[in-house]
Amino acid sequence: MASKTSMPSTLPVPEEIPSGLDVFRTMPYALILPELIFGCWVWILVAATSVYFTLLQGWVMYVSVSSFVISLLLLMAYLFGFHRNIQSWRILDSLYHGATGIFYMSAAVLQANATIRSEREVPAENIPLYYQLNVAATLFAFITTLLYILHAFSNYYH
């Protein structure tokens, strides 16, 4: 008779979320700092245009400022290890970055619309400056969108 031995389970154990300075050396958490930097540039560049298109750029400012603050709080939580007491931290992080990626995509599209409109609807003396600022803000908004989406998907796949 063959003896029945149970095989050990080979389920992969999820990696521990880093804390301290290891955050900057581990993917996807290393993307938080570029998210903050590029998101801050969106905020600064849109504010430099005096938010000429209030409805469009108001949403861009809201998304960029609120995402900056929440991402900064998340970075602080990672650096100081506050995440260790919460079991579902990866899910929270992935959901936040996924939702923020969607919000940033909408903000980037609205900023691109503001860029197109700034060629025609801005007073003549402000057209070159506002157009250049809006182009730069649009570029940084799309880069920030990509960073947030990469963070969400890479966290999901880990």
Secondary structure layout plus pairing:
Elements: H1 32-48, H2 54-80, H3 89-121, H4 127-157
The whole-number mean of residue pLDDT values reads 80
- What portion of residues belong to β-strands? under 5%
Radius of gyration (CA) equals 21 Å
Distance between the termini: 42 Å
Order of SSEs, N→C?
A: HHHH
Helix content: 55-70%
Strand count, sense and closure of the main sheet? none
Please count the beta strands (DSSP E, at least 2 residues each): 0
List the total number of helices. Answer: 4
Helix/strand class:
mainly alpha
Shape: elongated
Uncertain spans: none
Structure, described:
With 158 residues, the chain is mainly α. The chain has 4 helices and no strands. It has helices spanning 32-48, 54-80, 89-121, 127-157. Helix 1 packs antiparallel against helix 4 and helix 2 (54-80) runs antiparallel to helix 3 (89-121). The chain is elongated. It starts with 31 loop residues before the first helix and ends with a helix. The mean pLDDT is 80.
